[in-house]
Amino acid sequence: MNARWQVTGTTRGVTRFPVYDAAVLGFEDYWYPVMREDQLGSKPESLVLFGKRIMFYRDRGQVYALQDRCPHRGIRISIGKQEFPGTFTCRYHGWTFDLKTGNLEAALTDGPDSPMRGQMQVRSYPVRVLAGLIWIYNGIGEAPDPSVDIPSELLHADTVTGIRVSERPGDWRYGAENGFDEAHGKYLHRDSIFVTFRHPPAWVHSEIKHEPEGWITRSGTGHAFQSEYPGLGTWPKMKPWKTTKVLSRASIRLPCTLRIHFGEWVHFEWYVPTTPGNHRYIQVAMKQTTGLDALLFKFRYWTYLRWFFHGEFNDQDARVVEMMNTPPEELFRPDTSIIGWRKLCEQARGKPMMPEERAGEYAAEAKAV
Ligand code: FES
Ligand SMILES: [Fe+2]
User: Fold this and answer.
1) I need a surface site. Which of 1, 15, 102, 289 has the fewest CB within 10 A?
2) For 289-301, what is the mean pLDDT?
């Protein structure tokens, strides 16, 4: 254990994966989903992501994201209004920023010849609207095409989605570890309403397989739906109404994207870091289909999947993610999945992000390595 990586501001301890431990607020240089496209109305939305307050605003059909802090006196730019197309004006003294570049175009109350003009800038973030979601790129400089980070299934023309967005307490890494955790589905979720008619296995042994598009997948090497436990007896009881035996297929990739295959439809989720110890939870149920079947999938989502899968089932996850407090930890054989994910994070293409007061510490550490 390397005490220098001890994370402050969260209860999370250190693992033997230093890059992962440093990523209190995720990784730079990735596209992250933020909200449903239709959640952004005519007013700005101000969100905290990666430890920074960022405003989202739609101007003439185009969505922009700007650092939501006016450099003049530090108030939120998002409480202001639009005075001129392509810009947004701070409510306090009228500093007016270009939405695309973040450059100060005018300081209205200092007159048109204000010497501040062109001297100030707030950070602007590349944004795209794809697959019914607004995506932000949290890197500096030229953004890569979003398809490098968005699962290709979501970018097909005939993709139908049901999307739920919520704020969840708990470190984003606990969210990801729980999402890809092999064993919990067989115990934590066993009595969920969503699996009323399904019989999860008692146990599964798996190994990690690398797949295209940066996914790692849990690949089963053995399983049983019922077993004899020495000195204890048989577990679980086979319930006659649980007519379907389920073996799920789970994958994860950077920056924080989980995928579960359910046969003809797919579930994705992201754990987008907000502040240390909290994250924004984006859930997407999707099916590739058109016409009447697309309508039926929407109907199924809004009458069933949203409440019993994205709701009740994943709320069981939310409760343990909020409670989790590791390391220290004593991992067991199914946690190969968790180790596989942590190893993947060590290969992240962007730097790990942490609260600003710790950034210097990371730079010093990175040099020392
Ligand atoms: S605080 Fe924004 S213009 Fe003064
Ligand atoms: Fe779960």
Assistant:
1) 1
2) 97
Residues 314-328 pLDDT 10s: 999 999 999 999 999
Total domains present in the chain: 2
Ligand 1, from 68, 69, 83, 95: best to mutate by most atoms within 8 Å of Cβ? 95
CB 309 within 8 A of CB 267: yes
Ligand 1 atom nearest to CA at 90: 2
Q: Which ligand is nearest to the CA of 97?
A: 1
Give, using CA atoms, the residue closest to atom 1 of ligand 1.
73
Q: What is the pLDDT of residue 141?
A: 85
Domain co-membership, 212 together with 329: yes
pLDDT of residue 8: 43
Same domain (yes/no): 214, 311:
yes
State which ligand 1 atom lies nearest to the alpha carbon of 77: 2
CATH number of the domain residue 75 falls in: 2.102.10.10
**Domain check: are 90 and 47 in the same one?**
yes
What does the pLDDT read at residue 26?
97
Is the Cβ atom of 180 under 6 angstroms away from ligand 1? no
Clarify whether residues 282 and 337 are in a common domain. Answer: yes
Angle 28-25-32 from CA coordinates, rounded to 5°:
55
Kindly state the average pLDDT of the residues 3-22: 71
User: What is the model's pLDDT at position 9?
Assistant: 45
Residue 178 C-alpha to ligand 2 middle, in angstroms? Answer: 6
Residue 254: CATH number of its domain = 3.90.380.10
- Residue 269 has φ and ψ, to the nearest 5°, of -145, 150
**Dmax of the chain from CA atoms?**
86
Per DSSP, helices labelled H in 153-259 are: 172-180, 184-187
Closest CA to 267 of 222, 292, 300, 242: 300
* Domain-embedded: residue 129: yes
How many angstroms does the Cα of residue 221 sit away from the middle of ligand 1? 61
Model confidence, pTM: 0.93
- CA 309 / ligand 2 centre spacing (Å): 10
The dihedral through the CA atoms of 164, 167, 169, 172 has a sign that is positive
Residue 149 has pLDDT above 70, yes or no: yes
Distance 229 CA to ligand 2 centre (A): 24
Residue 357 pLDDT level (bands cut at 50, 70, 90): low
Amino acid present at 20: Y
Pocket test for ligand 1, best of 68, 73, 122 (most atoms within 8 A of CB): 73
In this prediction, residues 21-25 reach a mean pLDDT of: 95
* Residue 91 near ligand 1, beta carbon < 6 Å: no
